[in-house]
Amino acid sequence: MSTRPASQTLRSAAAAAVLFLSVAFAAAQDVGTEAQPAPRIGVMTRHGLAGVVTSISGSVIVMQIPENVTFTVQISLPTLIVGRGGPLVLADIHPGDPILASGDIDEQARTIQAQEITVQPPIAATMLEHQRKNFGKTWTAGIVSAVQGNAITLQRRDGQSQTFSVDEGTEWRLHDQSATSAMIRVGESIRVQLRPGASAASQVSIQGMTHPN
Q1: Which of 41, 55, 86, 192 has the fewest Cβ atoms nearer than 10 Å?
Q2: Which pLDDT band, with edges at 50, 70 and 90, does 176 fall under?
Q3: Which CATH superfamily is domain 49-130 in?
């Protein structure tokens, strides 16, 4: 039985790898056909909300998120608290700390039944405050209430309505995949990066429907 030279084997493996990557890249770029993200079905699932702790009372944490509203985070025995390199307890959390609270989110009551709380590095508080000050100016988020031509209106968590435009330069995302403007619908939760002037979008990230289709 003949043996292939090592150099030929390496060249063949390299060629196969290049071919595989080329096919994968082409498939990922073909947004309009097979690589198009799957349809959204059912209720949107949120992974968590980030904010800065404003107060703590018993097993309840109140935090302000960058969208200028507060959420009440309810801690229970199963809640996992981590951060600063290891496990923590509720007494380790103080007002001013930036946290990420994950769990069951009630948008109407603005409560989170926390499954996990991650205490973020102190620099995160500065970043969240920067986001809060620029909410509605360099970025916005909310539920789509109307789509009229190139104009999209959303209802923000702070109760304000905001309208922005989209054009051929707007980038569309659905979770971690490329998307198109045809995918936007009333009821979608979206996050928007705005161009200077806050009237046009540079990027629209579709996060999912907030109620069953």
Answers
A1: 86
A2: confident
A3: Nucleic acid-binding proteins (2.40.50.140)
